[in-house]
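ARCHIVE CARD
Drawer: 12
Card no.: 0347
Subject: one protein chain, sequence and derived structure
Cross-reference: see card 0346
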Amino acid sequence: MREPLTPVTVSDGTGLVELRIPSKAEWVGVARLAVAGIASRLQFSIEDIEDLKLAVAEACTNCIQHAAGGDSVAITCRIFPDKIIVRVADTGFGVSAAELAPKRLGEPSVGGLGVFLIRSLMDDVEYELDPHAGTTLTMTKFLRT
């Protein structure tokens, strides 16, 4: 069972931003822009913002493509003074843990580029797989000073 993210207060009184988009490809850009705006307010570098945007787009796209039965994708940003934790979740069912496991170099993979990109762009990546409740991807990006 997924625990709700509790807000963490930072200097300007914010801490938690939530967005729910329809499970349709044309809405992925909204998620990208929202996360970019949040990261920009936290003083992330342009390069790190681009990494976040790409990772969120890949995560949302994976939810849309692989979550059978899901009608929306939830994006939650938990803000800390030194990092942002982005959780992307669907309510469908579809991927297995074996599909998300890191692959060995040279091992062929169909559609595995998105997961590879997410792992290479973010500082920490965790998956929660529940065949009844959906898939949750939690990604952390640290603020570099």
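Annotation on reverse: The chain has one domain: 23-142. The beta strands are 16-22, 72-79, 83-90, 124-130, 134-142.
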